[in-house]
Amino acid sequence: MYKSKYSQNRKLFFFPRPFIILGKKCFSPLLFVLAFLLISFQPWQALGQGSRKSVSFIRDVRPILSDKCFQCHGPDSETREAELRFDKEESALRVIDKKEPRQSEFLERILHLDPDVLMPPPETNKPLTAAEIETLTLWIQQGADWSEYWAYVKPRAQPARTRQKDSNWIDDLVAVNLRRGGLFPAPPADPRTLLRRVYFDLTGLPPSPLNIESFLADKGPDAFERVVEKLLASPRFGERMAIYWLDLVRYADTVGYHGDQPHNISPYRDWVINAFNSNLSFDQFTREQIAGDLIENPSESQLIASGYNRLLQTTHEGGLQPREYSAIYAADRVRNVSLVWMGATLGCAQCHDHKYDPYTIRDFYALSAFFADIDDEAHFKVGTNSLPTKRPPEILILPKADRIELDSLTNEIAKVNRKLASLKTELSKKTKLLDSKKVANQPQSDQPARPLDKENLDLESQIRQLNSEIKSSQSVKTNLDKSKSSIEKRGRWTMISKSLDNPRITKVLARGDWMDDSGEVVSPAVPSFLGEIKKETRADRMDLANWLTDVESGNGALTARVFANRFWYLMMGSGVSRSLDDFGGQGFPPNNGELLDALALEFIESGWDVKQLVRQIVTSKTYQQSSIPSAESSKLDPYNEYFSHQSRYRLPAELIRDSALSVGGLLNLNTLGGNSIKPAQPENYYQHLNFPQRRYQPTANEDQWRRSVYIHWQRMFLHPTLKAFDAPSREECTAERPSSNTPSAALVLMNDPIFIEAARMLASRTLASSQNDEFANRLERLYQLALSRPPESNEIELLKTLFQSNYEVFSQNQEKAKAFLNIGQAKANTNTDEATLATWTAIARAVMNTNEFITRN
Amino acid sequence: MATTNRSELVNQLNRRTFLQRGGVGFGAAALGTLLGHWNPSSGCGQFNESAAALPHHPPKIKRVIFLCMAGGPSHLETFDYKPELERLDGKPMPESFTKGQPIAQLQGQTLKCLRPLTKFKKFGESGLEFSDFLPYQSQLADDICVVKSLVTEQINHDPAHTFMNTGTAISGRPSMGSWINYGLGNESENLPGFVVMSSVGGRNPQPIASRQWSAGFLPSRHQGVEFNSSGNPVHYVQNPRGISERQQSDLVRSISVLDSIRNQKIQNPEIDTRIAAYELAFRMQTSVPELTDLSDEPQHVLDMYGATPGDGSFGSNCLLARRLAERGVRFIQLYHRGWDHHGGLEKYMKVCCDHTDRATWALMADLKQRGMLEDTLVVWGGEFGRTPMFQGKGGAGRDHHIKGFSMWLAGGGVKKGHSYGETDSLGYHAVKDVVHVRDLHATILHLFGIDHARFTVPFQGLDMKLTGVKPARVAHGILT
C-alpha cells in the first residue's frame, strides 16, 4: 500500500501537469514535437482568446516569480543562474518577448516536457501549479506589464481621503474594492457587540453593565464617537497597545539564555504604556527608543526608552566566546529593527544576499554597524547568577519625591566624605608630627624618659579631638548611606543605551561565520537600494531613527505603511496586507493598495499621530459592521481580505485573564506601571531553571490582580496562563500571535486557580447585588457582567440543570464546597451559605469557559 | 434545547480521528486547517501542500524516544576509545588540532591532553567498544548503532540544545517533535503527541528552556507537553479542589452545549474544534493520571528499570516512556541534566551512569521483548561532546566540544551492532562519515518516511525546514 502511494505521490509531485504523463523515460523526439505543438497552443486555447481575467503584476505575478524563480534568478548574486533575474525588468525581458509573446522562452521553459529543460527544475521541489501557469501565461499574453515593487514606492495620494465629506474615507475606499470583488458590506453590528468590540480593542477590557446601559440609552448621533474619545483618553489604552508593541520589540523580564536570570528593564515597559497614553508621535517614539541616549541632554524618560537596544536575549554562560556573542547580538538587533520598522526579513541576509528581496549581505552588516557603539559587553565578565543579574549600564529610576531626597542625600554624603577626607589628612599630618617629635624626644639608652612638653600635649589632644570628629562623621555617613540604600531599594534599575567612545569594528562575516575574520570592514549604512544617509562623519543611531521616519528621503513611507497595516490589523483582525512582518516579495501584497496608501498618508500627515489613526479606523462603518459574514461573503471572501465584515477572534492571552479579573471585580487598576507581578503558578514550574535554582515567590498582596501586561515575563518558562493562550516567549519579534485552540488551554481555563478565583468573585458579585434571588434574575446579572447580554431561555434551562446537580453535591458535602471556595486568596463578599456560593461559582466557571467569553466579535 | 450529548461529541471526535488517519488527501496539516487550529488568514503557519503528501516513502518507525543527556557527555569516556590520548596524557595538545577552532571555557589556557579516565572493552558479536562506565549499555552491543562522528555548530549549552532540537540556534523555531507531529498527526486519542520529561539528580543540572519543545511557528497544539515527575503530572490536569469527576464532566458538557447554542447565532466554524479540545482535555484528566500511575506494573519490571514510583528518577521516566510509546505518543524526550563535567569527570560520570545506564538498557530490553523496538527509534546523546584536552575545575575534566562526538541510535530501520563514522586519533575532529546535526534530523525524518527537503512550511517569506538552508543528507550508512 505504501509503495503505490509513494509512487503516485512522486508522480504527482514531480509532474504536476496532466499532459506530462509520459515521464522522462518515454521521451522521444517525435513525442517532443507533438507535445510541443500541444503546449504551444493549448494554454491559449484553453484560456480562450482575450480572457476576461485581468492579471496584476504586483498582486498576481510577482509573488509567483518570487516564490518559484527568485531562488536561482533573484537578488542573490551567489546563487544566480545564467545571470538571469526576475526581480529586474530589463533582465527578465531577455526571455520574455513582448512583441511575440508566444515565442517567449519563459513560456516554453515553464511548460516544457523534458525535466532537464523544465523550469523550475523538478529537484527544487517548487513546481508551478496549474493556476500559477495560467496566471503567468495570461500575464505574458496581456503584455508582460511590469511595475515597481509596491512596498518601495511612495504612497499615492487618494482623492477620497482629502475630499471633505461627512463619511469616513475608509468606507469609500473599502467600498470601491468591495464592488471589484462583487461584495457588499455587512450590516452594522448590534450595539452590545460593538461596544464590547471597541472596549476590547482600545482598552483590552470588557465594558461594565453600566457602560452598556448608558450606551444603549444614548440616542445622540455621535454616541459611539464619544465612547471612542473616552476610551482613547483612558490610561487603559496605553496598557492595551503596549501588549502589541512589547511583542514586536521582544520585551521580557529575563535574559533568555542559559540561566534565564531576571534583568532590570520594567521601566521601559512603563515608558511604552505612557508613550501610547500621551500619544507621543510615532517618529519621536522611534527616535527615543533607538537613540534616546543620543538626544542632547536626554531626559530620564528618554534614557529609559533607549533600553530598546538592550531588550535582546543575552548570556554570561561560562565558556561563552565574546566574539561569537558579539555577532549573535548584532544579528539579533538587525532582525528586530528591520522586522519592526521596515517589515523586512533582513535576518535572511546574515549569511548571503537575500533570496527574494534586494537586501545584500553587506546591507545586513552595515545596518548592524549602527548598533556597534552600544556598550553592552561588560556582562560577559561581570554578569552574575544573582536575581536580578547584572547588565550594565543601568540607571536607577525613582519616584519624584524619592529622587529629590536621594539627590540631597547624595549631596550630603559627598559633603561628609569631603569632611572625612580633610579630617583624615589633618589627623595623619598631626600623627606624623607627633611621632617625629616622639622620636626626637626618645631618651638616650641610660637616661630617664623626658616628659612630653606642652606642645606635644596639645598635639595629642588635637588628635583625640580629630578622632572623635571622624567617628561622629562616620556615623553620620553610615546613617546617610542607610537612608540612601533604602530609597534605592524602592527604586527600579533599568538598562539603557550608552555609546562607546570607540564603536566595535563591524566586518562582513561571510556565510555568517563569526570566526572568519577576513571580511570587508563596513560603516553604518542603510540598505543601499533604499537610499543612503548623507553625512560626512560616521552615521549613528539617531541618523538611523530619523531615516526610518523620514518620508522624503528615508524609509518613512515604508514605515508608515508597515504600521498603518498593523494598526488596521489590531482593529480589524487582519491586515490590509496579510503579512504583518514581511513587506518583501514573499509577503502578501495588499488586497486594497489604495486603502493602505491612504492609511499610511493619514499616519504621516497627521504627524505620526497614533490615536488619530486608530480613531479614523474605529469610527468607520467598516469597523462597525457585524462580524457575521453573509453566505455570499463567506464564499467570495473567505479570508475577509475585502473587509466585507468585521472579524471574530479569540482574545490575546493577557486580555483573557484581565477579563476574568475584571468581571470578577478583582482587577486592580490603582496604579500605572511598576514592578512586574508574579501571579500564582504551579509550584514546580521553574524546576528546569538553574544558575541559580529558582523558587517562585507569588505576589501576595493586591498587586497579584494587576493587569497581565505587568506579569513577569520569564522567557524560558512563560507564565502558564499566558502561554496556554499563545503569548510568545518574546525571544524574537512577534507581529502576529497564532490563535490556537488546544486541550492545554482548556485545562488552564477550567482548572487554573486564577480562573476559579475569578469565577468565585463573579459569583459573589452576582449574589451580592441581586435583590431578586430568582435563579433567572441572578443568571441575568451574571451574564450581563460576563457577556454584556441577558441569557437566552435555553441557556437558562441548561444552566439550571447544572445548578441543580452542583447544588446537590455541595449542599450534601460542605467540605467539598469549602475546599472549592478556598482556592486563591480573594475573599468573596457575600453572606450566602457556602453551598450556594460554590454552586454559583460552578455556574460562573461554565460561563467563563464559553467561547463567547474569550472571543472578540 | 440543544441536545448535544457526550456520546455524540465523542463520535464527532472519532470522525476527526478517522479523517486524520484516513490519509485520503487529508494530511494532519490539512486537518489543522479544517479544524481551524490557526487563523487561515494569518501570514504564519499556513497550510503547505508539502505536508499533505506525507509520508513521502514507507516509514520504518512510528515513534522516537530521545534520551537527551544534557550537558554533553564525554564521548571519550563512553564509546570512542582513543589509546593515543593515553600516550599524550599531560602533554601539550598538538596545535594542528586546535588552531582556529572555537573553544569554550579553556579560552586562553594552555591546552594539555587528558587520557581516557576509564577502561574500554569490546562486547557482543559486534565487538563494539564500551567504557567501564556503561556496564548495562554494553549489553546492547548487538542492538545499537553507535555514531562516532557527530558534529554541531554551537559550543554553549543553551544554543546547542536549541540547535539539536530545532536545527538552528535562533530562538522561536519548531522543535523536531513538533515537526513530526505536525507532519504525521498525533496517533494518540487521549494524550499529546509530544511529551517531555526530565529526571532528578546528577551534577549541577543544566537549565532547559521550554523553547526546546516549542512548536515555533507551527500550530501550538503540536508543542511538547511537559510531564512532571512529581506533583501533578501535567499542569492543571487535576480537577480543582472540591470538584468531582462527575461535576467536571457536567461542566465540559455544559460548555459544549452553551457553545453550540451560541453557534446557531454566529456560525463559528471553530466551535467543533473547541468542543473537541475540551473533550480531549477532559479525557487527559483521566488518561494522564492513569498513565503515570505505575501501580499496575509488576515489581520485576520496576526492578528492571530501577524505578520507584514517584521518585522522579530517570528509571521511572524510562518506564513512563514505554507506557507513552504504548499509547501512541510519537515523540518522547527524556532529559537527564547532569552531564557537564568540566571537572571531577570520573566521579560525576559514575553518578550520571548510575542514574541512567541501567534504565537505558531496561528500556531497550523492554521495548524489544514487547516487539516495539521494531517501529521505535531510540536515540541516546547530548548536545555536544567533550574536549580531548584537560580541564581541571575540581579534578580532571573536559570542556565543551563540538567537532566530533558520539551518539547512538537503535530500533526500526537502524543497523544493529554497528559502528559508524570516526574521529581522528585524539577524538577531536570527526574525520570519516561525518554526521552533522542536520544529517541526524534528515535521517530521523527519513525513518518516518519524510524527505526532509520536501517537508517545508512557509514562514516570514521562507520555506522553513527542520534541516535549514544548508545541505543535509540522510546517513544511509546507519540504516538497514
What does this structure look like?
The complex is a heterodimer of chains A (857) and B (480). Chain A is 50% helix and 2% strand. Chain A contains 35 helices and six strands. In chain A, helix 23 (556-572) crosses helix 24 (593-605) and helix 34 (814-821) packs across helix 35 (834-848). The longest helix of chain A is centred in the middle third of the chain and has 42 residues, at 400-441. Mean pLDDT of chain A is 90; it is low at 1-51. Chain B has 480 residues and is α/β, with parallel strands linked by helices. In chain B, the strands form five sheets. In chain B, strands 1, 4, 5, 6, 7, 8, 11, 12 and 15 form a nine-stranded mixed beta sheet that branches. In chain B, strands 2-3 form a two-stranded antiparallel sheet. Chain B has a two-stranded antiparallel sheet with strand order 9-10. In chain B, helix 1 (6-22) packs across helix 9 (271-292), helix 8 packs antiparallel against helix 9 and helix 11 runs parallel beside helix 12 (345-369). Chain B is globular. The model of chain B is unreliable at 1-50 (pLDDT under 50). The chains are: A mainly alpha (857), B alpha/beta (480). Chains A and B meet through helix 1, helix 17, helix 30, helix 33 and helix 34 of A and helix 6, helix 8 and helix 9 of B.
Mean pLDDT reading of chain B: 87
Uncertain segments of chain B are: 1-50
State the CATH topology of the largest domain in chain B: Alkaline Phosphatase, subunit A
How many angstroms separate the termini of chain A? 47 Å
Provide the structure class of chain A.
mainly alpha
Continuous helix count of chain B:
13
Overall shape of chain B: it is: globular
Q: How many beta-strand runs of chain B?
A: 17
What is Rg of chain B? 24 Å
Mean pLDDT of chain A: 90
Strand order of the largest sheet of chain A: 1-2
